[in-house]
Write a structure and sequence with these properties.
The structure is a single chain. The protein is built from 5 helices and no strands. With 127 residues, it is mostly helical. The protein has one domain. The mean pLDDT is 89.
Length: 127
């Protein structure tokens, strides 16, 4: 029996976006732990919202549409300035760490955008 049938997931794309939100939330928690919880508190809030949003997407709840919208705007508002600052001060080729950070932030914002657009387009299917 597959994971998709165990969770009663009807839409594979929603499963992909839910998985993305769980991974993003886990990465944010990892950043908090590695920084001994000195990192800005919005990272923890975004992680918690990502976990809740992933659950809402898997269960196809109506409130998940609003939460995904909020996550897009909050995530973009916090990630894009960090990306801009990182690129303007270090560029892509200065170090391997900067390259990983910049690539991860770009992937995060792009996947947030895709999740937002998909969920907004399919909002009628959420109960």
């Amino acid at each position: 029996m597959s994971l998709k049938s165990k969770l009663k997931i009807e839409n594979s794309v929603v499963l992909i976006f839910s998985t993305f939100q769980v991974i993003a939330g886990g990465a944010m928690i990892f950043v908090l732990v590695v920084s001994n919880f000195i990192a800005p508190p919005h990272i923890g809030v975004l992680a918690l919202l990502s976990f809740i949003g992933a659950y809402g997407l898997i269960k196809m709840r109506r409130w998940a549409v609003l939460l995904t919208t909020a996550l897009f705007f909050l995530g973009a508002a916090f990630s894009i300035p960090v990306l801009y600052s990182s690129i303007s001060s270090q560029t892509f080729s200065s170090s391997q760490g900067a390259l990983i950070l910049n690539s991860a932030l770009i992937a995060y914002v792009v996947l947030l955008l895709f999740a937002f657009l998909y969920v907004a387009a399919k909002r009628e299917k959420f109960e």
